[in-house]
Structures are given as structure tokens and as C-alpha cells.
Specification:
The chain has 308 residues and is mostly helical. The protein has twelve helices and three strands, in the order E-H-H-H-E-H-H-H-E-H-H-H-H-H-H. The protein has a three-stranded mixed sheet with strand order 2-1-3. Helix 1 packs antiparallel against helix 3, helix 2 runs antiparallel to helix 4 and helix 9 crosses helix 10.
């Protein structure tokens, strides 16, 4: 078994020395902006009791997952940009792997639950309150967190049992594939479990999203023009969010497989595109597109101005 005090060096930062100052400012600004917009939206939903409904509860968890994902990477990147020799302990690296896996799975699973919520709302409006009860939503979220947390923990334990022959990673952060490739020999168990976990975290939610929107589309085609407009208005933010994160995930997978051939600019863009852009854009998209959130923000601003 590996010692948790073993060090992992990140060689990718050596090729970025010319851009370190610019990257440090850019990533810091984007990360702080990501924290602010997500926590602001969470605060708005928490303070407005009229928004304590399933769709907005799921949106809160989407925002918190985005904050957790960006926080698992950005502070480490900032610290490594400031260091002369970017290093991390094996324990720290495996902790980062755990949170990155949970972040990826949570985003897909919560987006799938939001698609299911839209499906029930549009296709079964009379049964919506009896199906999407607060208790049922809490149970679904609990199952998501427990299953993703346990599967990620098992993957981390399996990787931690590998004997490492190398201690350098040509990436900006740790991920399960990068750490597994440092081992002295290949491990079929780690590979198979990682593949099964990826299928469960990505393929199943995507099938649920596509199935939900196929049913929604069929219902809207048979509905009136006004109903079609309302349906599109409620579904557009979620569709944009899902496409945005799916695209970021796709390019992230391509980068993981071809990281040795990706130029330094692509290296940075891939990380920013996966860990910062989705969490930053999602609350902005919902804040702009969803009328109830806009109205809630306006009411809070008016109340604040009156109190002043």
C-alpha cells in the first residue's frame, strides 16, 4: 500500500511559466465570481419561501455541487501557480479525485432529476404535487449523494492500494486516470470499476434526460400554442445547462485520453471549461431565464432600498 505522505509532482505547470501571472488573476477572478453567483442564487431561493419547490430545491443542490467542484480544483491550481515546485501529497491527490468524481456525478444526476421534474410538471400536471413531494425529492437527493459518495470512495480505495513507480503527473490536477497510470502495473479491477462508475454516473442520467424530453416534446406537439411557449420557457434553462455541462464533460474526456498531445492553452481551457464555466454559467442562466427568480431578486432589492 502507498504511503499517504508520498508526493506527487505536477510537471504541466513548467510549460505555463510565461502565463502564470495572467492565469493566476484569471482563475482567481473566475473562481470568486463562481462562488458569488452560486451562493447568491442559493440565498435568494432560501430567503423566498415561494421558491421552496422541487425545481428550486434541485437548483440549490446544482449550485452547491458546482461550488464543491470548482473548490476541489481552483484553490489547488492557484496554490500550484504560486509554488516553485507544484506538489501534492498522495492523500491530498486522492481526496481531490474523490471530490472531482462526486462533482461530475452530482451534476449529471441532479440535471437528470431536474429533467424528471419538468417531465412530471408538463406531462402529468394534475399529479405533480402528489409525485414530486418534498419527502420524495429529499429521498432522491439522498440516494444520489450516498451512491456517488460510496462509489467514489471505493474507487479511491482501489487506487490507493496500487504500488506507484512514478510520481509525476503531466496535468494541472489529480484525477483517477492520472493516478492509476502512475502504478507499476495495470489493474483490471480499477479499470473495470472505473468504467462501470462512469456508465452509472453519465449514461444513466443522460438516458433519463433524453427520455424525459422526448415525452415532453410529444406532449407539447399536441398542445396549444400558448402551452408550447410556456413549456419551452420552463425547459430552456435546463436544456441549455445540460448541453453546456455535457459538452464540457465530452471535451474533458477527450483531454484525459489525449493529454500528452494537448497544447498548454488547451490544457488550461479544458480545466476552466469543466470546473469553472458550468458552475459560473448555470446560476446566471437560471437567474436570467426564470421569471420567478428575477421577480424575487427585484423584491429583495426594493425591500433593501426601502430599508435604507
Amino acid at each position: 500500500m502507498n504511503s499517504s505522505s508520498a508526493s506527487i509532482s505536477f510537471t504541466a505547470y513548467g510549460s505555463l511559466h510565461r502565463y502564470k501571472a495572467a492565469l493566476l488573476v484569471c482563475i482567481s477572478v473566475l473562481y470568486v465570481s463562481c462562488l458569488c453567483v452560486n451562493l447568491l442564487l442559493v440565498l435568494v431561493i432560501w430567503l423566498d419561501s415561494g421558491l421552496h419547490r422541487p425545481m428550486y430545491v434541485l437548483l440549490v443542490h446544482l449550485c452547491l455541487s458546482g461550488v464543491a467542484g470548482s473548490s476541489s480544483v481552483c484553490p489547488h491550481v492557484i496554490r500550484h501557480l504560486l509554488a516553485d515546485r507544484p506538489q501534492s501529497s498522495l492523500a491530498g491527490c486522492l481526496t481531490q479525485v474523490f471530490f472531482i468524481n462526486v462533482y461530475s456525478g452530482c451534476m449529471f444526476c441532479i440535471l437528470a432529476l431536474m429533467a424528471y421534474d419538468r417531465y412530471v410538471s408538463i406531462c402529468k400536471p394534475l399529479l405533480y404535487r402528489s409525485i414530486m413531494t418534498p419527502a420524495w425529492v429529499r429521498l432522491l437527493l439522498l440516494l444520489v449523494y450516498l451512491s456517488l459518495g460510496s462509489s467514489s470512495a471505493v474507487q479511491v480505495v482501489l487506487i490507493s492500494r496500487l504500488r506507484l513507480c512514478r510520481h509525476t503527473v503531466d496535468k494541472l490536477t489529480c484525477d483517477s486516470l492520472a493516478v492509476a497510470q502512475l502504478s507499476c502495473e495495470s489493474s483490471p479491477v480499477v479499470s473495470v470499476f472505473g468504467l462501470c462508475t462512469a456508465v452509472w454516473m453519465v449514461l444513466c442520467p443522460c438516458v433519463l434526460v433524453l427520455g424525459s424530453y422526448l415525452h415532453i416534446l410529444l406532449v407539447l406537439l399536441r398542445s396549444s400554442r400558448a402551452s408550447q411557449v410556456r413549456g419551452l420557457q420552463t425547459c430552456t434553462p435546463h436544456l441549455v445547462t445540460f448541453i453546456n455541462f455535457s459538452s464540457a464533460s465530452f471535451f474533458g474526456v477527450i483531454y484525459n485520453r489525449l493529454s500528452d498531445r494537448v497544447p498548454e492553452a488547451g490544457l488550461v481551457l479544458t480545466y476552466v471549461n469543466f470546473f469553472i464555466v458550468p458552475p459560473l454559467l448555470h446560476p446566471i442562466i437560471y437567474g436570467i431565464k426564470m421569471q420567478e427568480i428575477r421577480q424575487s431578486v427585484k423584491k429583495m432589492m426594493k425591500r433593501k432600498i426601502i430599508q435604507m
